[in-house]
Each structure stands twice: as structure tokens, then as C-alpha cells.
């Protein structure tokens, strides 16, 4: 998924919100970081020393079945009975690449995955296809990295800056805590970006925009505006006049009398009606699109 970069002007206003560049140089450094993280975990295992692993479990089978049903709406096959491997999901992403519904399929695959966490028990990293993995390479911005650094110092007897006794003895609770704080930080980051987005979009109220449906619920649909700039809610009462039934299997809202429907992945034209700077929520009205 694209990472959005918020640029703040000198007067404190939001100058722009754009996808952060991801260059070949970034990809190269990422590969080196992954290799270093693997090397750290392997080294601690060879030394028979406790390690804080970054683990990513296999997706839940119920979520995989839900993904399979959702992909049928995009005419993408995800066969049953296969051993789950990252390459199966990569094939799905490849089939959706450069299509109108690419963003929706990427979201579906992402939501299907398990939550990555920290653990003293090695479960492997499904997403990266690695048997052992640790977070080690950052410039000491995460506590998990510090724990791995200290473990390596202690395992090699490099000096007095190694493990702290009580941390080594209670890694389970430490890993649970840092996994929780990581999720909390992610929520805070998303909330901040939503508020910046609402500030930025407030000047565009009344404009028509292209929107892709990224979620369908009984009370309305969530849409992604202008190629990933912001997310907004299109309430069901703002759709063409009808009584709408929510079809969870096809991820669509279907009008009882008109047969008009809006489903996941469709492109609509909407009008921005509300940008709440406090909550970060955007609301739009329907203009055109649907089936």
C-alpha cells in the first residue's frame, strides 16, 4: 500500500499530501536490511541465546476463504486446497496490477494477513517467506531493536552493555507490551494523517472527485479519493433514492426497487461535502457510477 507523505507549509497549513517515493535505491537498502535482520536471528540461535523474533503467522483459514469469495467478484481465482505460501498472494496482486480495482484487491489481501508481532518463540515470518527474522537494523528507534542489540552483545561477550537480567527472564511480557505499543503507534499515525488530510481537503468542499469503493457496509460505502489521497464515507442515504440491502458475500449494496448497486472495487464520481478537521472524517455525496 502506498505510504502518504504530508508536507507542512511555513504557516502550519498542509501544503500537499502525496505518495512517498519508493526508488530502486530504497528497494536495495530494504534487501540489505532484511538480510541483516535474518543474520541477527540466526546468530543468536547459533549462540543458543534468547532472541526477540519478528513473527508473522500464516493467515487464518476463515479469512482466506473470505478472500477467495471476494476475489471471485474481480474474476481472480484463488484455488482451494493449496498449501498457503506468499507466492500465492503475490500471484493475486500481479493479476490486479494496473487494473481499476488494484487498490481494492491490495486491501483485501492485506486484511487477510495475520498481525505481525514480537515474540521470544520463533514462528517464522510468512509474509517474507523466512524461517527466522528479527528487527535489528533500525537506528535504535524501536525497543525491539535494542533488545536484539543487547542480546548480541551478551551472546558474544562484547562488554557490559548486554542483556538486562529482568528483561531476559520475562521476554514474553516484554514482547506482548512492545507489540501493543507498536499497534497503538500505528493507530496514532493513521489518525494524524486523517486529520491532516481533512485539513487539506477542507478547501475542496463542493468539488467532484473520482473515488474507488474500498469497503461496503450496511450504512454506506467507504471510498478512496483521487488515487489514494484520502478515504471518505458515502452514506447509504446519499445514494440514489431506494432501500438498499447489504450483500456481504458480493460486498455490495443493492437497491430493492431499482436494482441499482454499488460494489467493492467500482469507480464512482462523488462530491466532497464535509471535512471534519477534529475527527479527520470526510463525507461525500454520490454523483455517478455504480451498476
Short key terms for the protein model shown above:
12 strands; single chain; globular; 291 residues; three-stranded antiparallel beta sheet; five-stranded antiparallel beta sheet; alpha+beta
| Secondary structure tally: strands | 12
Helix content: 25-40%
Put simply, the count of helices is: 7
Q: On the 0-100 scale, what is the average pLDDT?
A: 88
Rg value: 23 Å
Elements, N to C (H/E): EEHEHHHEHHHEEEEEEEE
Structural class: alpha+beta
What's the arrangement of strands in the largest beta sheet?
Answer: 7-6-5-11-12
> Into which percentage range does the β-strand content fall?
15-25%
The first-to-last residue Cα distance is 27 Å
Dominant shape:
globular
Low-confidence stretches: none
Q: Main sheet, how many strands, which sense, barrel? A: 5 strands, antiparallel
Structural account:
The chain is an alpha+beta fold and 291 residues long. The chain is built from seven helices and twelve strands. The chain has helices at 24-46, 61-72, 86-96, 102-112, 143-156, 165-169, 171-201, and strands at 4-8, 14-19, 53-55, 117-119, 208-217, 220-225, 230-235, 244-247, 252-255, 261-263, 267-275, 282-289. The strands form four sheets. The protein has a five-stranded antiparallel beta sheet with strand order 7-6-5-11-12. The protein has a three-stranded antiparallel beta sheet with strand order 8-9-10, with no helix packed on it. A hairpin with a 5-residue loop joins strand 1 and strand 2 (14-19).
Outline the fold blueprint.
Blueprint: E1 4-8, E2 14-19, H1 24-46, E3 53-55, H2 61-72, H3 86-96, H4 102-112, E4 117-119, H5 143-156, H6 165-169, H7 171-201, E5 208-217, E6 220-225, E7 230-235, E8 244-247, E9 252-255, E10 261-263, E11 267-275, E12 282-289
Antiparallel strand pairs: 1-2, 3-4, 5-6, 5-11, 6-7, 8-9, 9-10, 11-12
Amino acid at each position: 500500500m502506498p505510504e502518504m507523505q504530508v508536507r507542512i507549509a511555513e504557516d502550519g497549513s498542509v501544503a500537499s499530501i502525496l505518495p512517498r517515493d519508493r526508488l530502486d535505491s530504497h528497494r536495495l537498502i530494504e534487501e540489505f536490511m532484511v538480510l541483516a535482520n535474518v543474520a541477527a536471528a540466526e546468530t543468536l540461535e547459533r549462540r543458543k541465546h534468547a532472541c526477540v523474533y519478528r513473527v508473522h503467522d500464516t493467515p487464518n483459514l476463515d479469512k482466506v476463504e473470505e478472500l477467495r469469495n471476494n476475489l471471485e467478484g474481480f474474476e481472480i481465482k484463488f484455488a482451494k486446497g493449496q498449501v498457503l505460501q506468499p507466492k500465492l498472494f503475490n500471484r493475486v496482486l500481479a493479476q490486479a496490477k494496473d487494473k481499476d480495482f488494484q487498490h481494492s484487491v491490495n486491501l483485501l489481501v492485506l486484511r487477510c494477513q495475520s498481525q505481525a508481532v514480537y515474540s521470544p518463540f520463533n514462528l517464522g515470518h510468512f509474509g517474507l517467506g523466512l524461517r527466522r527474522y528479527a528487527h535489528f537494523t533500525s537506528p535504535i528507534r524501536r525497543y525491539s531493536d535494542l533488545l536484539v542489540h543487547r542480546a548480541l552483545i551478551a551472546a558474544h561477550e562484547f562488554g557490559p552493555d548486554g542483556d538486562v537480567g529482568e528483561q531476559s527472564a520475562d521476554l514474553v511480557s516484554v514482547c506482548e507490551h512492545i507489540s501493543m505499543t507498536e499497534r497503538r503507534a500505528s493507530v496514532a499515525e493513521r489518525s494524524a494523517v486523517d486529520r491532516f488530510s481533512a485539513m487539506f481537503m477542507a478547501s475542496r468542499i463542493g468539488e467532484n472527485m473520482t473515488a474507488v469503493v474500498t469497503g461496503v457496509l450496511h450504512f454506506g460505502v467507504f471510498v478512496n479519493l483521487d488515487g489514494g489521497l484520502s478515504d471518505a464515507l458515502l452514506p447509504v442515504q446519499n445514494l440514489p433514492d431506494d432501500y438498499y440491502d447489504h450483500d456481504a458475500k458480493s460486498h455490495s449494496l443493492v437497491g430493492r426497487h431499482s436494482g441499482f448497486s454499488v460494489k467493492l472495487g467500482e469507480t464512482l464520481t462523488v462530491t466532497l461535502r464535509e471535512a471534519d478537521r477534529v475527527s479527520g472524517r470526510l463525507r461525500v455525496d454520490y454523483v455517478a457510477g455504480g451498476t
